[in-house]
TrEMBL record:
<keyword id="KW-0406">Ion transport</keyword>
<dbReference type="InterPro" id="IPR023298">
    <property type="entry name" value="ATPase_P-typ_TM_dom_sf"/>
</dbReference>
<dbReference type="GO" id="GO:0016020">
    <property type="term" value="C:membrane"/>
</dbReference>
<dbReference type="GO" id="GO:0046872">
    <property type="term" value="F:metal ion binding"/>
</dbReference>
<feature type="transmembrane region" description="Helical">
    <location>
        <begin position="1061"/>
        <end position="1082"/>
    </location>
</feature>
<dbReference type="Pfam" id="PF00689">
    <property type="entry name" value="Cation_ATPase_C"/>
</dbReference>
<dbReference type="InterPro" id="IPR059000">
    <property type="entry name" value="ATPase_P-type_domA"/>
</dbReference>
<dbReference type="InterPro" id="IPR008250">
    <property type="entry name" value="ATPase_P-typ_transduc_dom_A_sf"/>
</dbReference>
<feature type="transmembrane region" description="Helical">
    <location>
        <begin position="1028"/>
        <end position="1049"/>
    </location>
</feature>
<keyword id="KW-0547">Nucleotide-binding</keyword>
<dbReference type="InterPro" id="IPR006408">
    <property type="entry name" value="P-type_ATPase_IIB"/>
</dbReference>
<feature type="transmembrane region" description="Helical">
    <location>
        <begin position="387"/>
        <end position="411"/>
    </location>
</feature>
<dbReference type="GO" id="GO:0005388">
    <property type="term" value="F:P-type calcium transporter activity"/>
</dbReference>
<keyword id="KW-0112">Calmodulin-binding</keyword>
<dbReference type="Pfam" id="PF00702">
    <property type="entry name" value="Hydrolase"/>
</dbReference>
<dbReference type="Pfam" id="PF13246">
    <property type="entry name" value="Cation_ATPase"/>
</dbReference>
<dbReference type="Pfam" id="PF00690">
    <property type="entry name" value="Cation_ATPase_N"/>
</dbReference>
Length: 1107
């Protein structure tokens, strides 16, 4: 049986890159409030109590609506409950689900067994229900029963019943796959349908303030029809009702669009690509295409794709916490061979026979019962909700004040209508008129709350592994030393003794998790055959576990595995290795899977003559230290002590060329000393000393793959960095983001790649502590690590612990740290970092789950895109906050002053709802969708505690708000005298004045949206035409405002304006542009106002505490 390479083993050679985004050293303790519930700097590791604390921090209306974009603890609890229920009642739940699906698919369900449209039960000697029961109960006796005569390895017997082969898998042709899907089902499950648009309408309607407005609208509608008749009386209530419905629909559309985006992201995340063995070939398929009978290799970090039984395993450990809820690692062997779908491979390697897929597994039942959530919340989300909560409280306070003032003036007889008549006279005014008047006042107060609460604010939000991230991850052996002789080309057979060649091929064939597939029609490729071959790597195969195909006379040799394994296997194939023959003529006794700590892996092999060879392969300098002898190219065994300097120099020379250096060694061992008991054999440590060095190879990471001529690769060594990486590193550096490379390669290789990629600028920079070995860093005290962490640029020969220690040291120093990685050993650092970025192609499932962002193309240049988009999102949020606060301040001040002074407000409920629509949803869409620009990378990074509202924003919004308040108050109190003429009545003049105030206010917001685009730039129009959504929203708002004023006056209580007043409104709005330019000449202090204020408060508290 063959297995494919482990992604975990691949990452042991590679590393991870830490990106320092910002530093908060300038923030002193006086500026930080430890009691601030919204100051959660790292929500990934925050306890649930801390995340719940900010939700309960203050009075918040409509908490379910305000916090709808954050983590839902209730859903998490429901998920755990469903998980427990499925574990206990899997068979009942499965039967119910099958019954439902049978009805949907017109299948017949009888006694729990599904009869497919094409009966195929007789095709297999074991049925679906038997397999489900065996796996559910994890019954060894049932497995033994199906195993027949193969009592020692019952899975062999079971595989025969399923018409599969433990080594070669199923046939895998279309007919075979269809038959298996009909008999045992597919590895899919009925996805829980996403929420429909009507559901989002229902949720948007749950806003308490909107419900109050609807009730007020209904009452107003009834009273209006009663007092004024149907023809005229429905306008007030109907207009409010229509405005509320419009707000609900727009909100629901926005939420629904975001939900669809999440569904697409989840579908991409769930479509895991993995390797299986079919017909003896290792192929890559989607997890949804797995069928019963498939043979699946398992590697560190993989997700178990289906229920199954272990075929072979070496140190195989499974994390079953995703199903059992217990964070306990379970070791799998022949005594505990059952594997559950959805679990993760924590350690070791192995292979499994699939026995259950889809809803016939507990994982499938769970996935069919739950829906994906939006994931973890971020510190930014918490802070945004803090800002939204604060603004909402201010709005609520203002609304209550306005309500009290208006009610007081109304019942005291100080409120007059447009004709100057007192609206309430005790004992004279009818009850219906009083109710109508109170409802109008109450509606205005509630509308102020609606306007003040920033619904659009949450809407506005919606380190690197060197191998495969900085490099193309396409590798070839380009240098090889056998003994003291350098092979040139590296696969030159004429310089190798047959015994040395045999041992090299034997070691590579067995000590690998890769695979070589050779069709019977094609003879093994020998280096003695002078044939013309070509090698290529397709785009979809260019990541981890890619394939190389050597074509020869119509036949093909397929080499699969990690890039490192693939390179070494391809090299030995050209040396004449017959992979299948070597594997079939020997027995693997014990395997030590590649270990990222020891950076090597080994295998014990028993040959046909009962001789035992132990083969090791790994980091060249580490394996070299365990060798006492070496075989020269002539097959002579010699002491290595006198030649170690030569081999070390050879390794350093290859490393200086950015070559990955791998050593291959072996030793003989006495069969009698190997434990015969299976349990003892599992615990047996492979002898790793007194080895014989066979070869040292240098692997190049190539950008281009050239044609093969004769028996060797004739290519020029290429720069190992991906195209654009050097430029990307330069952009990051200029943006204030320091790039650090942390790798398992030796220091010389790491240094060479860092120089090529621009992480190190020159050889002069390549001195300690700029470059450091992981062991050296690890041995420092915690305080010493914190002191030098910020100076480290390259760390070589690092272990997972070193990566984690570096991230922790950087974060303790106040840095905001991003980490990229692909392997399981990167998971702790990815989880600890502020931002974890995993690789979408070669990343293990464990790494992806520990990360915050998945880079789909595994390219470091994409990290720059992440930084650019991250800064863009943050900048857009600030733009929206500035815009919204300006509207809030102006609208609230205008209504409060007018209410106190005259007992009436110039902006009524319908007008305020229209302003709310412009400000919240449309404003968020216009400003929060501004595309990223290159200028964002010229800004300094933002610290984790930097205030969202900067001094520049305070200046801008203060200037605009003061201007708007001043103009509108002048119009409110002086407009009647300005607009009065002899032809119009006083009532009409007041209506024109209020309409002009409303129109000018809306125009101010339209033009201020342009100012909000560039808070710190003079030219606010740069790039505006490229944002079609922004231009469309502004244009639509302008047109709708004209329609409202000219044609919908009865609904909005407005009148038509002549061209002079339209021109006046336009001029009032346009004047905000030159005003914004003038305002930007006003200097602002560097220290944020919020920090200065908090520092003063904290010091005042301290002084009082001392007294």
């Amino acid at each position: 049986m063959t297995t494919s390479t482990s992604r975990g083993s691949n990452s042991s050679f590679n590393g991870l890159l830490a990106v320092t985004i910002s530093n908060d050293d300038d923030i002193d303790d006086d500026a930080v409030d430890p009691n601030d519930p919204f100051d959660i700097t790292h929500t990934k590791n925050a306890p649930p109590e801390a995340l719940k604390r900010w939700r309960q921090a203050s009075l918040v209306l409509n908490a379910s609506r305000r916090f709808r974009y954050t983590l839902d603890f209730k859903k998490d609890e429901e998920r755990d409950q469903k998980k427990s229920m499925i574990r206990s009642h899997a068979q009942v739940i499965r039967a119910a689900l099958l019954f439902r699906l049978a009805g949907e698919r017109e299948l017949v369900t009888s006694t729990g067994a599904v009869v497919s449209p094409t009966p195929v039960a007789d095709e297999y000697a074991v049925g679906l229900e038997q397999l489900v029961s065996m796996t559910k109960n994890q019954s060894p006796s049932a497995l033994q029963q199906y195993g027949g005569a193969s009592l020692l390895h019952p899975v062999i017997g079971l595989s025969k019943l399923l018409q599969s082969d433990p080594d070669k898998g199923i046939r895998g042709d279309d007919a075979d796959l269809l038959k298996r899907k009909n008999a045992f089902g597919t590895n899919t499950y009925p996805r829980k349908k996403g929420r429909s648009f009507s559901r989002f309408l229902w949720e948007a309607w749950q806003d308490l303030t909107l419900i109050i407005l609807i009730i007020a609208a209904v009452v107003s509608l009834i009273l209006g029809i009663k007092t004024e008749g149907l023809e005229q009386g429905w306008y007030d209530g109907g207009s409010i009702f229509f405005a509320v419905i419009l707000v609900i629909v727009v909100t629901a559309v926005s939420d629904y669009r975001q939900s669809l985006q999440f569904q697409n992201l989840n579908a991409e995340k769930q479509n895991i690509k993995l390797e299986i063995i079919r017909g003896g070939r290792t192929i890559q398929i989607s997890i949804f295409d797995i069928v019963v009978g498939d043979v699946v290799p398992l590697k560190i970090g993989d997700q178990v794709p289906a229920d199954g039984v272990l075929i072979t395993g070496h140190s195989l450990a499974i994390d079953e916490s995703s199903m059992t809820g217990e964070s306990k690692i379970i070791h799998k062997d022949q005594k505990a061979p059952f594997l559950m779908s959805g679990c993760k491979v924590a350690d070791g390697v192995g292979s499994m026979l699939v026995t259950g897929v889809g809803i016939n597994t507990e994982w499938g039942l769970l996935m069919a019962s739950i829906s994906e959530d939006t994931g973890e919340e971020t510190p930014l989300q918490v802070r945004l909700n803090g800002v939204a909560t604060f603004i909402g409280i201010v709005g609520l306070t203002v609304a209550v004040s306005v309500l009290a003032v208006l009610l007081g003036r109304y019942f005291s007889g100080h409120t007059k209508d447009l004709d100057g008549k007192v609206q309430f006279v005790a004992g004279v005014t009818g009850i219906s008129e009083v109710v109508d008047g109170v409802i109008k006042i109450f509606t205005i107060a509630v509308t102020i709350v609606v306007v003040a609460v920033p619904e659009g604010l949450p809407l506005a939000v919606t380190l690197t592994d060197k191998t495969g991230t900085l490099t193309l991850n396409q590798m070839t052996v380009v240098e090889a030393y056998v003994g003291r002789k350098k092979l040139n080309p590296p696969d030159d057979l004429t310089k190798l003794h047959p015994e040395v060649l045999s041992l090299i091929n034997e070691g590579i064939a067995h000590n690998t998790t890769g695979n070589v597939f050779l069709p019977k029609r094609s003879p093994c490729i020998s280096a003695k055959q002078h044939v013309k071959m070509h090698v290529w790597i397709t785009e979809e195969d260019s990541g981890n576990d890619a394939f190389i195909q050597f074509n020869q006379d119509g036949g093909e040799v397929e080499v699969s595995g990690s890039p490192t394994e693939k390179a070494i296997l391809s090299w030995t194939v050209k040396l004449g290795m017959n992979f299948e023959l070597l594997r079939s003529n020997s027995t693997i006794l014990h395997v030590f899977p590649f270990n990222s700590e020891k950076k090597r892996g080994g295998v014990a092999v028993k040959l046909t003559d009962s001789a035992v060879h132990i083969h090791w392969k790994g980091a060249a300098e580490i394996v070299l230290e365990t060798c006492t002898q070496y075989l020269d190219s002539g097959g002579h065994l010699k002491s290595i002590e006198e030649e170690k300097v030569f081999f070390k120099n050879a390794i350093e020379e290859m490393a200086a060329q950015s070559l990955r250096c791998v050593a291959i060694a072996y030793r003989s061992y006495d069969l009698a000393k190997i434990p015969s008991d299976e349990d003892e054999l599992d615990q047996w440590a492979l002898p790793e000393h007194e080895l014989v060095l066979l070869a040292i190879v240098g692997i190049k990471i190539n950008l281009l793959v050239y044609s093969l001529s004769s028996n060797y690769i004739n290519l020029n060594l290429q720069d190992p960095c991906r195209p654009g990486v050097k430029d990307a590193v330069k952009v990051c550096t200029e943006a204030g983001v320091k790039v650090r490379m942390v790798t398992g390669d030796n220091l010389q290789t790491a240094k060479a790649i860092a120089l090529e990629c621009g992480i190190l600028m020159s050889n002069e920079d390549a001195v300690e502590p700029n470059i450091i070995e992981g062991k050296t860093f690890r041995e420092l005290s915690e305080k010493e690590r914190e002191q030098i962490a910020n100076k480290i640029t390259v760390m070589g020969r690092s272990s997972p612990t070193d990566k984690l220690l570096l991230v922790q040291a950087l974060r303790k120093g106040g840095e905001v740290v991003a980490v990229t990685g692909d392997g399981t050993n990167d998971a702790p650092a990815l989880h600890e970092a502020d931002i974890g970025l995993s690789m979408g192609i070669q990343g293990t499932e464990v790494a992806k789950e520990s990360s915050d962002i998945i880079i789909l193309d595994d390219n470091f240049a994409s990290v720059v895109k992440v930084v650019r988009w991250g800064r863009s999102v943050y900048a857009n949020i600030q733009k929206f906050i500035q815009f919204q606060l300006t509207v809030n301040v102006a609208a609230l001040v205008i209504n409060v002053v007018a209410a106190i002074s005259s007992g009436d407000v110039p902006l009524n409920a319908v007008q305020l709802l229209w302003v709310n629509l412009i400000m919240d949803t449309l404003g968020a869409l216009a400003l929060a969708t501004e595309p990223p620009t290159d200028s964002l990378m010229n800004r300094s990074p933002v610290g984790r505690r930097e205030p969202l509202i900067t001094n520049v924003m305070w200046r801008n919004l203060t200037v605009q708000a003061l201007y708007q308040v001043a103009v509108l108050l002048v119009l409110n109190f002086g407009g009647e005298s300005i607009l009065r003429n002899d032809q119009d009545s006083r009532t009409h003049t007041i209506q024109v004045k209020n309409t002009l105030i409303f129109n000018a206010f809306v125009f101010c917001q339209i033009f201020n949206e342009f100012n909000a685009r560039k808070p710190d730039e003079m030219n606010v129009f740069r790039g505006v035409t490229k944002n079609r959504l922004f231009m469309g929203i502004v244009g639509m708002t302008f047109v709708l405002q004209i329609i409202i004023i000219e044609f919908l006056g009865k609904f909005t209580t407005t009148v038509r304006l002549d061209w002079k007043l339209w021109l006046a409104s336009l001029c009032i709005g346009i004047f905000s542009w030159p005003l914004a330019i003038a305002g930007k000449f006003i200097p602002v202090p560097k220290t944020p106002l919020s920090r200065t204020f908090m520092r003063s408060i904290r010091r005042l508290r301290k002084s009082r505490a001392v007294e």
